[in-house]
Every structure is written in structure tokens, then in C-alpha cells.
């Protein structure tokens, strides 16, 4: 018997555009022989299902149900494709936990913690063979001293919203005089900002997921941006970045990276598919953790679809594995 799935898209941040594209990819590749899929839009105006243009049917938030042609539809599970709030920060996860409706992502606690880059780095610090760049976390309205930070950290810096995604509000600072402007830009996106020392290395992004009770690491993608760094434009403009999947690593690096990624997945108590971004430092080959994304993009230019293809399985099979793990 088919399961009824809500594919949740949209969101309340600037990433909603990417969420819509991700949901389109997922909708095109979910096995309709196994699942009846209803794409549900969530935004500032409400939660609704759009069966056709200009028709919007509200979701009953009391039990997350949909009434269509007099028939009440309840969902066996939810595929959350919302990047940023409220899909990636634990808010929706807590809601679905209370309703006892299973979902494809990490739980509420892990989702909430991993949205905070500074807190996440503190948790994963200590994993064997994993390094984290020196950084300082500052708060809007706090008593931080940028002049002191300029003395404590070595140039260049990355300045980023602590809970943001898609590199929105992020800057690379090469001169101390530019730090104030970069911090101001990041504070427009978040109340917390992370100022981090730059690591000179090759940049990679790697997906990992759990299905049938087993953690599987996907082939990694090496990222070579044409821009100064892997910013929003580089992420979502076809051709703006050279992306090599699978990325080139030695056998030793391959083995070490896979173990680190599995350890990160376990230590953060992840579920579903997540993506870890990291550097391999040029001189040392050390693994430097950048961040984890618990609802990675699924657009045509996103890494996870590329990595799934490189592993030799279809997106349909991949999404089926995720859904079966969710609904078991």
C-alpha cells in the first residue's frame, strides 16, 4: 500500500528560493509507485497545498492534515526540503515530534545545534584527525572588541552569520580595515557572527546518510570556485565553480576522511542525509572542519545529486532509501 508523504518546501529566510528548487528535484524523483506526494509550501503567509495555479488549500496545523474534495488527508511521513528556518533549525522537527509524524532529517536537538556554526565546532572538536580553525563568536549588542579580535586572529578571516546558509552574508576579509563592514553585513542576517581564521587548503564537500541502519559516505566533491571563495553566486550559478566528483584524494586521505565523516555523523547524532564541508590543508593535508548542513541542497547544481550519481545509484533509489529509513 502506498504511503502518503508531505514534501515540505519554502521557508522564512532568503534560502526559500533554493528550497523550492530542491523540492522540484525531489518531486521529480520520488517513486510514485511507493508514495503519494503532496508538495506543501510554508512561508510567511501560511502553510498550504497548491493543486493548481491560484488555488491554495490551507494545512490544518492542529494535526498537519489537508482536506481535499471533502477528504481529510493525513501524512505517513514528511520529506523536509526547507533550508534555513524553520526547516533546518529544529522548529519543525519539534512540531512533528509532538504530532508523532516521522520526518527525513536530523531530530530537533541536532538540527538546532548544527544551525549554530560555533556550537557545532565546539562539539566536533576532539574527534580523531579532525581540526577546527581558530575563531571568535560575537553577538549583536554584545561587548565584543573588534580591535582586540584583529590582534587575536591572523588574516585573512572568514566572517559569516553563525546560523546562516548558502553563504548569504559571508565575506572574506584580507585587510583589518574591512572587518567592520564584513561584520555589519553578517549581522544583517543573524544575531550571532563567527569570525574565523582562513585555512589555506583544497575545499571539499561530502554527503553522508543512514539507510538500513548503516552509515554510507557518498563520493566527495572538490570545489574550485572561480570567485574568491565559494559564495552564493558560486554555489548556484552553473559554471561559476569547478566541481569535481569524485574529488581526487590519496588512498590514505580517502580512508581518513571517511572515518572522520562517520565520526562527525555519529557524534552529532545525525539522521537522513547531511553534508560536511571541509578543507585539506595544503602543507599538512590535515582535515579542517568547515560546517555541516543537515538539509543539503537538492537542486540541479547541488552536490548531493552529483555524488549520488557518482556512487552509481539513481536519485529515485536514493530518495526511496531515505524514505524507508524515515518510515521504519
Automatic annotation (TrEMBL):
Enumerate the subcellular locations listed in this protein's record, separating them with semicolons.
Cytoplasm
Q: Which InterPro entries match?
A: ATP-grasp (IPR011761), ATP_grasp_subdomain_1 (IPR013815), D-Ala_lig_Van_CS (IPR000291), D_ala_D_ala (IPR005905), Dala_Dala_lig_C (IPR011095), Dala_Dala_lig_N (IPR011127), PreATP-grasp_dom_sf (IPR016185)
Q: What is its EC number?
A: 6.3.2.4
Q: Which GO terms describe its molecular function?
A: D-alanine-D-alanine ligase activity
What SUPFAM superfamilies does its record include?
Answer: Glutathione synthetase ATP-binding domain-like, PreATP-grasp domain
What enzyme category does the UniProt record give?
ligase
Query: So what does this one do?
Result: Cell wall formation.
Protein's UniProt name: D-alanine--D-alanine ligase
Source organism of the structure: Pedobacter jamesrossensis
Amino acid at each position: 500500500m502506498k504511503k502518503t508523504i508531505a514534501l515540505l518546501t519554502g521557508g522564512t529566510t532568503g534560502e526559500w528560493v533554493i528550497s523550492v528548487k530542491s523540492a522540484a528535484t525531489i518531486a521529480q524523483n520520488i517513486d510514485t509507485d511507493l508514495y503519494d506526494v503532496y508538495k506543501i509550501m510554508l512561508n510567511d503567509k501560511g502553510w498550504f497545498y497548491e493543486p493548481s495555479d491560484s488555488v491554495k488549500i490551507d494545512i490544518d496545523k492542529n494535526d498537519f492534515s489537508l482536506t481535499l474534495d471533502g477528504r481529510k488527508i493525513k501524512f505517513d511521513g514528511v520529506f523536509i526540503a526547507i533550508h534555513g528556518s524553520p526547516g533546518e533549525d529544529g522548529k519543525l522537527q519539534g512540531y512533528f515530534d509532538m504530532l508523532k509524524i516521522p520526518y527525513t532529517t536530523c531530530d530537533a536537538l541536532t538540527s538546532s545545534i548544527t544551525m549554530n556554526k560555533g556550537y557545532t565546532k565546539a562539539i566536533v572538536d576532539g574527534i580523531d584527525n579532525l581540526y577546527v580553525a581558530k575563531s571568535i563568536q560575537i553577538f549583536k549588542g554584545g561587548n565584543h572588541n573588534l580591535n582586540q579580535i584583529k590582534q587575536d586572529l591572523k588574516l585573512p578571516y572568514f566572517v559569516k552569520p553563525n546560523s546562516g546558509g548558502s553563504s548569504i552574508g559571508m565575506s572574506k576579509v584580507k585587510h583589518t580595515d574591512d572587518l567592520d563592514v564584513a561584520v555589519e553585513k553578517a549581522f544583517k542576517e543573524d544575531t550571532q557572527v563567527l569570525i574565523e581564521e582562513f585555512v589555506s587548503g583544497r575545499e571539499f564537500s561530502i554527503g553522508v546518510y543512514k539507510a538500513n541502519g548503516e552509515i554510507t559516505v557518498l563520493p566527495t566533491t572538490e570545489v574550485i570556485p572561480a570567485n574568491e571563495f565559494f559564495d552564493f553566486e558560486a554555489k548556484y550559478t552553473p559554471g561559476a565553480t569547478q566541481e569535481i566528483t569524485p574529488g581526487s584524494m590519496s588512498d590514505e586521505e580517502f580512508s581518513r576522511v571517511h572515518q572522520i565523516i562517520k565520526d562527525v555523523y555519529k557524534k552529532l547524532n545525525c539522521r537522513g542525509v547531511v553534508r560536511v564541508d571541509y578543507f585539506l590543508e595544503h602543507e599538512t593535508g590535515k582535515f579542517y572542519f568547515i560546517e555541516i548542513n543537515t538539509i543539503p541542497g537538492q537542486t540541479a547544481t547541488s552536490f548531493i545529486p552529483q555524488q549520488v550519481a557518482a556512487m552509481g545509484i539513481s536519485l529515485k533509489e536514493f530518495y526511496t532509501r531515505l524514505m524507508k529509513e524515515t518510515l521504519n
